[in-house]
Amino acid sequence: MALTGKLIYKGLDIDNAHLKVMRIEHRAVDSSTTAEDGTVTWTKANHADYSARVYKDAAAYAANPDSAVYTISGTFTPSVANTANLNIVKQTYEHIKTLADYDELTDC
Questions:
Q1: Considering the entire predicted model, what is its pTM?
Q2: Are the CB atoms for 25 and 39 separated by under 8 Å?
Q3: Could you give the count of Cα atoms lying within 13 Å of 45 in the half-sphere of its Cβ?
Q4: Closest Cα partner for 4 from 56, 45, 44?
Q5: 43-78: buried (b, 16+ CB within 10 Å) or exposed (e) per residue?
Q6: Tens digit of pLDDT at every position of the chain (108 positions)
Q7: How far apart are alpha carbons 19 and 64 in whole angstroms?
Q8: DSSP string spanning the chain?
Q9: Distance of CA 79 to the CA centre of its chain
Q10: 11 Ramachandran zone, left/alpha/beta (phi>0; psi -120 to 50)
Q11: CB under 8 Å to 99, separation ≥6 — which residues?
């Protein structure tokens, strides 16, 4: 699984860019709030931290996965709803496609 399409990096066109997610870490964070009456309420938040590499094209990735043009990283809140696709890798690619620089990329 990867994304492909045209990207612009530092003013240079990359016509057949190949974006490959390389790392995803899922975190569950518990936090508490205390009301004025002393009642403590706990909540859980899910986070997914990721990094992805962008290559000149799929052939460049296949020839040497360490030859990325650049790397991106970020965090998003994965869905755990019963109707959601619970595949964290798929959710990461879907998240990346919501970012302005990558919203024209397609699955490949």
A1: 0.83
A2: no
A3: 7
A4: 56
A5: eeeeebebebbbbbeeebbeeeeeebbeebeeebeb
A6: 999 999 999 999 999 999 999 999 999 889 999 999 999 999 988 999 999 999 999 999 999 999 999 999 999 999 887 666 778 999 999 999 999 999 999 999
A7: 14
A8: --EEEEEEETTEEEEEEEEEEEEEEEEEEEEEEE-TTS-EEEEEEEEEEEEEEEESSHHHHHH-TT--SEEEEEEE-----TTS---HHHHHHHHHTTSGGGTT-EE-
A9: 13
A10: left
A11: 74
What would the two tokens of residue 5 be?
A: 């399409």
At which residue do the structure tokens 């990096």 appear? Answer: 9
- Residue type at position 71: T
